[in-house]
Amino acid sequence: MQRRRFVIALSAWPALLPRPAAAVDFAPVLPGRRLVFPDDFGAHPDFRTEWWYATGWLKRQDGRPLGFQITFFRVRTGIGERNTSRFAPRQLLLAHAAIADPDFGHLRHSERAARAGFGHAGYTIGRSEVWIGNWRFAQQENAQGQRYQASVRGEDFAYDLALDATTPPLLNGQQGFSRKAAEPRHASFYYSRPQLAVSGSLSLNGRTEAVSGHAWLDHEWSSELLPDGAQGWDWVGINLADGGGLMAFRLRDASGNPLWAAASWRAPGQVDRIFRPDGVNFRPLRHWRSPRTGIDYPVAWRLQVGERTFELSPLLDDQELDSRRSVGTVYWEGAIRVSENGRPAGEGYLELAGYGDRIRVG
After folding, report:
1. C-alpha dihedral, 244 to 250 to 256 to 259, nearest 10°
2. Which domains, and CATH codes, for the chain?
3. Model confidence pTM above 0.70
4. CB 129 within 8 A of CB 112
C-alpha cells in the first residue's frame, strides 16, 4: 500500500535527505513473483521502503480496553552506496509506537530514528527482526507456529508483548502483488497476519500490569512512490469476531474521490478472497476536527466489501499522530470498533492519511 501500512508514509524519508549523486536502481515490484516463507518474513534491503506494522487491542486487568501500535520502517536512501565507511547512511530505520487510552484522552506516542549499523539499529534477512536501541520487533519459532516479540520504551509508556500466529499469512492482491493504481508499476509486495494472540506487560506512568488481547500485522515493501494525483489514503485492518480478518484500503485524490481500492478477506474454513476496486466502498459517517492542527478527519465510516457492510467507530476520537519530526507528516491512526447490522463484529485499526497536506513522497 504505499505506506504505512500501505502505508507508504515511509517514502517521505527520502524527501528529508540529500539527493544521491547518481541514480539508484531500486529493486522493482513485478507481478508473478510469489512470496516465499520464511524468507519473505525478513528484510528486503534492495527495495526503497519497507515496514512491519503491528496494531491491536489490549485488555487491562480491570477489563478496560487500550489500543497499541508499533511500526518499524526501513528506508534505502540511495546515498553512499559506494562509500565503504560504516557511517554512510545507506539504510535508515524509523520506528513509531503509540498507546490509545480513552482515559488519557489522546495518543501516547513516541518515535525513534537511526542509520543502520554499529549494533544500535538494524534488520535481519530471512526472519522478521528489526530494532533501534531497546526498541525491537522480532520473530521467533514456538510450538504453536510463529511468535513475534514487540518491545518498546517510550517517555511515558512501555510494553513487552508476545504476538502468536497460528495461521499462514494472508497474501494481499495477486498472491502478494498489491496494486495501488491501474498502472502495474505502482505496486508493493504485501501480506498480513490477522488474529495474532497477544500476551505480555504494559507500563503506564511507571506502573506495570499484565495485558492480553489480539493484533494484526502488516509487512510491505516497495520501490515506487504514490501515483500522480494521490492526496492520501484510508486503510483498515480488522480482526473479525468470527475468527476471520479483513484488510481494505483506498487511495484518494485532493477532492476525496477514490483513485484505487482493494480488500483481502479471510473467513475460517474458506479460501481467502481478494476484492478489486469495484468491490470496496468507503463512506464517511462522522468527522472530528483536531484542536491542535485544525485537520478534519472522518473518524467513523461505513465500509462495504463485497456483499457485506460494516460500521467503524473509534475507541476515542483524538487519535491524531504528529510525526513531523521524523517522516514529516500528520495523520490519524487509531483503534476502532466494528459492527455489522447493529451487532459487534470485530475490532481493528484505521489509518487516515493526507487529510491535511498532501502526503509528499520522493
Report:
1. -150
2. 28-353 (2.40.370.10)
3. yes
4. no
